Amino acid sequence: MNDYLKGRFEKVKEMIEDGVGFRTIARTLQMSRNTVRRYSNMDILPCKSIYIKNNYNEYQEIIENWLSEGKIITGIFEIIKKAGFKGSRTAFYERYKDHPMRTTPAVNIIANVKHRLISPRKISKYLGFADLSKIKDQTDKEIMGELISKNILLEDLRHQVLSFKTLLLGNDDSLLEDWMKKTLTIGKSQLKTFIKGLKSDIEAVRNAIITNWSNGQVEGQVNRLKSIKRQMYGRAGFELLRRKVVLSRVG
């Protein structure tokens, strides 16, 4: 117990026994009358209880994890403050400024290694490779192998892409229905939209499988016509455009 508080308590009790009033005691000892009144009802001055406001234990693991990664103290304080920490910035700094994980960062800081990533476009391209060893870039080859081995969704997508290529190059349209059902089980909205598009023009899709005909020639002529039209924009009318398309092989 604090000797100063104990002495003041005993002095209050002595003055009360001598018949001194509360107001006089408070003025003489420079304390509030409420304190004098409270002391008068006590036989023994109890030990002062300590209210621990700073709930460090709840955030100790988080604090040490951030310290081990080299996070500055002010940054850690902001993180745990948002999570509900009730202590002050100054008290927090005083408590952790000499923490071993902060004073010896070379041992605890995890190396910040930047891993190379490949774009979604490349991933979608590589999903169509039946043999991943044909990927020319060695790093891309290793990343794709790891992705497919650890990601079931990518593995399922790759299987469906390859089976669809086989389906289009074959001539058995009876496999189409089964392929669409398996693709829907993957559960991705983009694939559901793709299947919906196939079903909306299912006869054309079946014809693409069972016949050797292609609309490639038609699409080529349409592209040629549009190219000629763009070259002649604002220069002539339909008759000259018709002659140019008929007489020119390359536009």
How are the SSEs ordered, and which strands pair?
Elements: H1 3-17, H2 22-29, H3 33-40, H4 60-68, H5 73-82, H6 89-96, H7 100-103, H8 105-108, H9 120-126, H10 138-150, H11 152-169, H12 175-184, H13 189-200, H14 202-210, H15 216-231, H16 238-247
The computed structural class is mainly alpha
- Succession of helices and strands: HHHHHHHHHHHHHHHH
The number of E-state strands comes to 0
Radius of gyration (CA) equals 41 Å
Anisotropy-based shape: elongated
Give the fraction of residues assigned to helices.
Answer: 55-70%
The average pLDDT value, as a whole number, equals 82
The proportion of strand residues reads under 5%
Main β-sheet: number of strands, strand sense, barrel status?
none
Q: Which consecutive residue ranges, at least 5 long each, have pLDDT under 50?
A: 106-111
- Please count the helical segments: 16
Gist of the model:
Helix content is 64%, strand content 0%. It folds into 4 domains: 3-40, no CATH class; 56-108, no CATH class; 120-210, no CATH class; 216-247, no CATH class. The protein has 16 helices and no strands.
Describe what this molecule looks like in 3D.
The chain is mainly alpha-helical. It has four domains: 3-40, no CATH class; 56-108, no CATH class; 120-210, no CATH class; 216-247, no CATH class. Helix content is 64%, strand content 0%. It is built from 16 helices and no strands. Helix 2 (22-29) crosses helix 3 (33-40) and helix 11 packs antiparallel against helix 12 (175-184). The longest helix is centred in the middle third of the chain and has 18 residues, at 152-169. The chain is elongated. Mean pLDDT is 82; it is low at 106-111.
